[in-house]
Target: Sporulation integral membrane protein YlbJ
Amino acid sequence: MNGSKFKTFIFASIITFFTISLIIYPQAALEASLRGLKMWWEVVFPSLLPFFIVSELLIGFGVVAFIGVLFEPLMRPIFKVPGVGGFVLAMGMASGYPSGAKLTARLRQEEQISAIEAERLVSFTNSSNPLFIFGAIAVGFFHNPKIGILLALAHYLGNITVGVIMRFHEYSHPVDENKNNTSKKLTFGHAFDALHETRVKNSKPLGKMLGDAVSSSVQTLLMIGGFIIIFSVLNNILALVQITSIIATFVTIFLALLSFSTDLSIPLISGFFEITLGAKLTSEVTTATLKEQVILTSFFLAFCGLSVHAQVASILAETDIRFKPFFFARIIHAFIAGIYAYLLWSPLNEKLGGFEQTSGESPVFAPLKDLTWIEKVYETITVYGPFITLLFLWIYTWILYRNWRPNLK
Model:
């Protein structure tokens, strides 16, 4: 059996196993599906949609080209990507997974970056947003907003470190040296010229551009929702058929070498598939110290879970950007973020008045001592999120109807 046939056999076997498992455990599959749908419906869709729409409009109106000229002297020497990478990095941090991949793919389709530059860029611009780190994980699971400070620092510093490392990816590739190199154009005048040229080139009227932005954003979010549901079900199924327990026996060896509680093996595997469930299970392990819980959470938060990997792979499949560099970068980020969490624990524990003490004052980080507003924002999104989701799904349906109506006549 050659490699291609073996690959076909493996994929067919996995799909068959998954299908049979759904038939045997329909109730568990339904519960896991509803759990994934609830997370997408309440949080993911309403929190990502505004960033997706605004990003599409900024690209269409040439604002990203304007930013690209200004950020070229910063992004090119450090990360060896064009200045537009600064926009992707900022939006990726602000909105979370998988915004970095979507924006990188969009810039590649616009031919504003080369394929190699896109592979470097996507490797360090996919990150979790602060609202998820502070609201869902720190406050929601650990009930301690101070933990969010440590997780955020480890996560974002790790991402920047990965970007510096990935600048050596295909370092000698000839396309990168001159393409999009506007390092000599440092004035606002040149930046505005780039903005104007992009806007003129995109001759769509405002209404058409806005409609396309909404349509493209909702399509991407529907795809993301499907992956969240599928991996939520898969994670539950693997636990029911004891595959997770079998894998856990090997993971415990790795944890024992690090002197971590072996009870963290199941949460680690769950986080490998889906971050939210992994963080929740990690926070509930009473036999592990808080330091161990935070380091492990930082590890799989950086890896971002196979669910996000599948989302990114689906987005990149529409371009010539390879997925392997992204996957390699996620592994590097996972270990680097875990190391940063370990190194930052002691100094931040001292400056924040102790992670175990959630009510103490913080003389050094005084502005961050009260992070309850993040919890309020997160709760507001979960309350009004379904309404926002339903509203834009209706708008998306109306746009589709308007586009198809001429063909029905």
In short: DSSP finds 18 helices and no strands in the chain. Confidence is low (pLDDT under 50) at residues 175-185, 359-369. The chain has one domain: 28-357+368-408. Residues 228 and 276 are 10 Å apart (CA to CA).
